[in-house]
Amino acid sequence: MPTDKPKVLFMSGPEYAKDVWNEFIQDFTVLLWEEQSREDFIRDLSSKYDGIQAIYRAANPKYPHYKLGSFDREIVSAFPSSMKIFVNGAVGYNDVAVDVLSEKGILFCNTASGSDNATADTALWLILSTYKNTWQSEQSVRAGVWRDRTNVVGRDPAGDTVGILGLGNIGKAIAVRCKAIGMKVQYHNRNRIDAAEEEKYGVTYKTFDELLSSSDTIVVAVPLTSDTKHILNAESFKKVKRGVIIVNISRGGCVDESALVDAIKAGKVSKVGLDVFEEEPKIHPDLLSNEKHALLPHIGGATVNTFYNFEAIGMQNIKMWLKEGKAKTPINLSAIQKQ
């Protein structure tokens, strides 16, 4: 006897992975979220959306559901008892109450690996831009000024040491690119990777303080958690090599922006390459006014390839968990297994 297909709520319809979507809808009853207020959405979770087993949320500010705000304790607590998996279509998840999902026995997945190449490419661009002073040169050209290149002379990154904070998928992709332009690569992780992987990526492990004091460039590639918030702060900047370059492609909250500005004024930090900011879209005025810095509006993973991957990985997670009890990129699996 045929059974009802599991119900899945998509906060926005797929825009990129249409081929994966066409297969997905054969196995699931898909509901598409209709724009509404946060209060109405919370109400509908116990009525209109009662019985859903999964939610996919594309973490892209262009979609109307972003107006709902964070999927915090208030929203997650309202999830119906039928819920089994929540997928956030992004790598970062600092605006999701993962602890509440775990309390409710709901698997949480991000879409890790989907933006590895795009974000690593952005990190490399920020490194090269700060080394070669491309930003101030471009500004001059656009202003109609053919600047004497001696005024913006840069330096080669080859031979310099880059320290990567967080050697996950994105960190490893950054390491590959930095090795390709001749940089020496070292890293710090909460857990050191095994020797075979260190050899594969040509990286050297350092303690946190060792990395700070010996890196010419520091790239922040850790997820934002309570442990990594302000991982670079006033105390950290006291330990860095004078003239270090700071690159952040993770989350703005990983760097204390006020302390960063103070370190720039003190000459400890020479330049920054930032794709993320602590209170984005607000940016510290001292960063905006200094044309030596390379600043981007959080576009590190913004490619059609990334968005395809996010959608595809999201649907794969839902399908695997509801049909096989497995997932491709689980975050809180161990927490819900303890229940």
CATH structural class of the largest domain: Alpha Beta
Q: Terminal Cα separation, in Å?
A: 33 Å
- Class by helix and strand content? alpha/beta
Task: Tell me the CATH topology of the largest domain.
Answer: Rossmann fold
- CATH architecture heading of the largest domain: 3-Layer(aba) Sandwich
What's the shape?
A: elongated
Could you list some keywords that capture this structure?
339 residues, alpha/beta, Rossmann fold, 7-stranded parallel sheet, 14 helices
Task: Note down, in words, how this protein is organized.
It is built from 14 helices and twelve strands. It has helices at residues 18-24, 38-44, 73-77, 98-103, 116-132, 134-142, 169-180, 195-201, 208-214, 234-239, 257-265, 285-288, 304-324, 333-337, and strands spanning 7-10, 29-32, 52-58, 85-89, 107-109, 161-165, 184-188, 203-205, 217-220, 244-248, 269-274, 294-295. Helix 8 links the parallel strand 7 and strand 8. The protein has a seven-stranded parallel beta sheet, sandwiched between helices. A five-stranded parallel beta sheet has the order 2-1-3-4-5. Helix 5 (116-132) packs across helix 7. 36% of the residues lie in helices and 16% in strands. The chain has two domains: 7-114 and 304-337, 3-Layer(aba) Sandwich (Rossmann fold); 116-295, 3-Layer(aba) Sandwich (Rossmann fold). By secondary structure, it is α/β, with parallel strands linked by helices.
Question: What is the secondary structure topology, with strand pairs?
Answer:
Blueprint: E1 7-10, H1 18-24, E2 29-32, H2 38-44, E3 52-58, H3 73-77, E4 85-89, H4 98-103, E5 107-109, H5 116-132, H6 134-142, E6 161-165, H7 169-180, E7 184-188, H8 195-201, E8 203-205, H9 208-214, E9 217-220, H10 234-239, E10 244-248, H11 257-265, E11 269-274, H12 285-288, E12 294-295, H13 304-324, H14 333-337
Parallel strand pairs: 1-2, 1-3, 3-4, 4-5, 6-7, 6-9, 7-8, 9-10, 10-11, 11-12
Helix pairs in contact: 5-7
